[in-house]
Design brief:
dioxygenase; alpha+beta; LipOase; 915 residues; 30 helices; metal ion binding; nine-stranded antiparallel sheet; metal-binding
């Protein structure tokens, strides 16, 4: 291929045609300081983190060299006649775009191709790690234009070549300036020619063209990762400047541009659209009245009708490097969710004219998997068809498309499993929401709500009712003492919302609920009772009733209906709290604080970075299409328009950072003592999760101890302390005064904090996300909404007679409507899908880890243990004694198996919350 024919800037020459080189102006290397200003810095006489270059002696005359030769010369005596230099090559790897070499056909593409031909694609500058020993300011940089080498796999490579004087010292960073007219994604830079061998520079960043970017981009070498106090003298000012850019220091509060890299905080004030309709107004989440984690600031203007609310847009800002890759965008992703909601749902509404129309019979639900739903007005051969191959299928001989769903694994294994009480209980330990079950520690169960407002506090589940079911095993007193009574308790959480939910125009209802279970000797749970409560209001007293498995027809049907309500409550809590709040929403402040306060030179930034990939982007898309007004959550879950507001109440009442650690969470749920013996020994989520937790913690321990060999180093690390302070006082500022926040003084404190963050982003999220379709893709197993009240709650004579005549109709009426069911199924299919570029925990060695032999070795141990976990889980799933994960028709528990193929697999633990 052609190599660039123009002169480079580092002192070596290339022959060039006269027409291309004629009139070329000499470019003097270096700018002397950061942006040309003199910035004093302390000089490190010994820098163990930087690297000397190989010394080559090349005789050069001080004068009389060719006119086209521009040489980077370090400061030296005027009497010197020999310059000691080394040849250094920098290979820049740029990710190819899906549309072609750099895509974006047009005039700018033509100019960029010419720039590549002339060798002026990227301006690369070497930055010394050492300040000038005399002046104390940054040494001049050594620049060169990189020319395109060609394509390697799916990447493009550019080469810059330098002659580095020995007086330049160690290389600590590089500047890169994009000379193209379009942005490009720079993956990494490899420096070759150094005395210690090749050195990597992890970039993983979008580089804006010179016409957009206000300054050159700085990237630090992977090997210079260090605590602030150890920063080489020539990099101190650059380290601080880069953090100031990411914080947006000095930038106005206007709307953020897509190309911005600014991380800042704001409240959730963009979920409603009061300018469109007053009914679409939603309260601000975040602040004393409605505490909530903070989200990324977009800078959009406020609405006209509500100065507290922010206007909405179709493209929610996230810092540029947080955006989906092109592969992610073109595969199953958050963009696909948006497409489902904005293409599939309107077509469903066209096909199903009555939005409240339920399923007329259960075989109509089954038909979704073998006949599908006709979807007019949608192009299956367009972009949506390409990204939804699992559920959208064209029928060539009919001018329609078919929304045809895959059969969820649970139904595929046991079509009637959803009816079994044992399966109902098993899923609280090995299903989609294994984070709510708690040990009963007091009897009778009591509400903490004000009885003057919500009615008598004592539960309707009595001792007599319980002992009718456990008489052969125990008494209530002994069952509590022996830790055998467990409960899903959504009574106090949901009861204050009951009347508000019921007053909505949408067809839905709500209760406060408790579901009581007994642990049998074979480690399976047996359901005892479901309590449903309606508070006083609208001229009616409190209504509550306990339902139990029954041998008579009426009691049996009421029990089936009570289970629909209990599951709807659990589905809502799972989606709003266990999933959205505790992973997505609570992680976003960690990401913002990490980028604002921890330099990319900081080892803890490098440790956490893989676990934050895509999370801000998927959260932005959730605000755009899932948790917003009339989004899927509001339209298809029982709390309706109060759904996210309910999550705010539960954040205020229940969320604690210290309890996000898996062992602490298990202990907090009363008695799951993970270091001694689990109260329920056959608890698949806890058993697999604790192994994964220990593996993560061991890796974090090795990493932290390497960088913090002395205890006082944590407390004196100013970046780290600012990071933790900002997470507590700003990102989660509504809880800043809580006494339970961990202190950060020792390496042990840091290990626990970082392990908790990584666990939430990886294991916790995987456990509550990737099984959604296989468990909730069959609506009767896990209805997201209960649309009608219990038939025994203040019934009229006609209502009761209708229930007695056809109880199946009552059950079908309680389930989601056809539109709600198909909308939820389509969204859950996408959310349960691993994309082709998924990055699984421990699977890919980061360049920053590879740069340090001790860290690389620790990572290899980490990766090996994760592979062992795969075998441990497979072994447990074949153990006949573990009835909660093995048996006829039982779905094995694989959600915490670390690795997976692309698609819906109900396994695989990604590094981050990437969907």
């Amino acid at each position: 291929m052609l190599k660039t024919p123009v002169n480079h800037l580092n002192g070596h020459q290339r022959s060039s045609p006269p027409l291309l080189s004629h009139g070329k102006t000499a470019f003097i290397a270096g700018d002397g300081a950061v942006d040309g200003s003199a910035i004093p810095a302390s000089f490190l006489s010994v820098n163990t983190l930087a690297f000397p270059v190989k010394r080559h002696i090349r005789s050069r005359r001080r004068a009389g060299h060719s006119a086209g030769e521009i040489k980077a010369v370090a400061r030296q005596s005027s009497t010197a006649s020999v310059v000691q230099t080394t040849s250094v090559k920098a290979t820049v790897t740029v990710q190819m775009t899906v549309g072609g070499v750099l895509s974006n056909l047009g005039i700018s593409r033509a100019f960029d191709d010419v720039a590549d031909l002339l060798g002026k694609s990227l301006l690369v500058e070497l930055v010394s790690a050492e300040a000038d020993p005399v002046t104390g300011i940054q040494k001049p940089t050594i620049p060169d234009y990189a020319y395109r080498l060609g394509r390697k796999a799916d990447d493009l490579q550019y080469l810059a070549e330098f002659e580095v004087p020995e007086t330049f010292g160690s290389i600590g960073a590089i500047y890169i300036q994009n000379e193209h007219h379009k942005e490009m994604f720079v993956e990494s830079v490899l420096l070759e020619g150094l005395a210690i061998g090749p050195v990597s520079v992890s970039c993983e960043s979008w580089l804006q063209p010179k016409s957009v970017a206000k300054s050159k981009r700085i990237f630090f070498l992977d090997k210079v990762a260090c605590l602030p106090k150890d920063t080489p003298s020539g990099l101190k000012a650059l380290r601080e400047k880069e953090l100031a850019i990411l914080r947006g220091d000095g930038v106005s509060d206007g709307p953020r541009k897509k190309t911005d890299r600014i991380y800042d905080y704001d409240v959730y004030n963009d979920l409603g659209d009061p300018d469109k309709d007053p009914e679409f107004a939603r309260p601000v989440l975040g602040g004393k009245q409605r505490p909530y984690p903070r989200r990324c600031k977009t800078g959009r203007p406020r609405t006209k009708s509500d100065p507290l609310s922010e206007t909405r847009s179709n493209d929610v800002y996230v810092p540029r490097d947080e955006a989906f890759s092109e592969v992610k965008n073109l595969s199953f992703s958050g963009k696909t969710v948006y497409s489902v909601l904005h293409a599939v749902v309107p077509s469903l509404e066209t096909a199903l004219l009555d939005k409240d129309l339920g399923f007329p019979y259960f075989t109509a639900i089954d038909s979704l998997y073998n006949e599908g739903v006709n979807l007019p007005q949608i192009d299956s051969k367009g972009p949506l068809g390409s990204v939804l191959p699992r559920i959208l299928k064209a029928v060539e001989d009919v001018q329609n498309n078919i929304l045809l769903f895959e059969t969820p694994e649970m139904v595929d294994r046991d079509k009637f499993g959803w009816m079994r009480d044992q399966e109902f209980c098993r899923q609280t330990l090995a299903g989609l929401n294994p984070l709510s079950i708690r040990l009963v520690t007091e009897w009778p169960m009591m509400s903490t709500l004000d009885p003057a407002v919500y009615g008598p506090a004592e539960s309707a589940i009595t001792t007599e009712l319980v002992e009718k079911f456990i008489r052969g095993f125990s008494t209530v007193e002994d069952a509590i003492k022996d830790k055998r009574l467990f409960v899903l308790d959504y009574h106090d959480a949901f009861l204050p919302f009951v009347h508000m939910v019921r007053d909505q125009p949408m067809r839905t209802t709500l209760y406060g609920s408790r579901t009581l279970m007994f642990l049998t000797p074979d480690e399976t749970l047996m359901p005892i009772a479901i309590e449903l409560v309606r508070p006083p209001g609208n001229g009616k007293p409190q209504w509550k009733q306990a339902f139990s498995p029954s041998w008579d027809a009426t009691g049996a049907w009421l029990w089936k209906l009570a289970k629909v309500h209990a599951l709807a409550h659990d589905s809502g809590y799972h989606q709003l709290v266990s999933h959205w709040l505790r992973t997505h929403a609570c992680t976003e402040p960690y990401i913002i604080a990490t980028n604002r306060q921890l330099s990319k030179m900081h080892p803890i930034h490098n440790l956490l970075h893989p676990h934050f990939r895509y999370t801000m982007e998927i959260n932005g898309l959730a605000r755009e299409a899932l948790i917003n007004y009339n989004g899927t959550i509001e339209a298809c879950f029982s709390p309706g328009k109060y759904s996210i507001e309910l999550s705010s109440v539960l954040y205020d009442q229940q969320w604690r950072f210290d309890h996000e650690a898996l062992p602490a969470d298990l202990i907090a749920r009363s008695g799951f003592a993970p270091r001694v013996k689990l109260t329920i020994e056959d608890y698949p989520y806890a058993n697999d999760g604790l192994v994964l937790w220990d593996i993560i913690k061991d890796w974090v321990t090795n990493y932290v101890n390497h960088y913090y060999p002395e205890k006082n180093l944590v407390e004196t690390d100013e970046e780290l302390q600012e990071w933790w302070t900002e997470i507590r006082t700003v990102g989660h500022g509504d809880k800043k005064d809580e006494p339970w926040w961990p202190v950060l003084k020792t390496p042990e404190d840091l290990i626990l904090i970082v392990t908790t963050i990584i666990w939430v982003a990886s294991g916790h999220h995987a456990a509550v996300n990737f099984g959604q379709y296989d468990y909730a893709g069959y609506i009767p197993n896990r209805a997201t909404i209960a649309r009608v009240k219990m038939p025994c709650e203040d019934p009229t004579d006609d209502e009761w007679e209708a229930f007695k005549r056809r109880p199946e109709d009552e059950l079908l009426s309680a389930l989601p409507s056809q539109i709600q069911a198909t909308q939820v199924m389509a969204v859950l299919d996408v959310l349960s899908t691993h994309s082709p570029d998924e990055e699984y925990i421990g699977h890919q060695l980061e360049l920053t880890f590879d740069a340090v032999p001790e860290i690389k070795a620790a990572y290899e141990v980490f990766s090996g243990k994760l592979k062992e976990l795969e075998g441990i889980i497979d072994g447990r799933n074949t153990d006949d004694k573990l009835k909660n994960r093995n048996g006829v028709g039982v779905v094995p528990y694989t959600l915490l198996k670390p690795y997976s193929e692309p698609g819906v697999t109900s396994m695989g633990v990604p590094n981050s919350i990437s969907i």
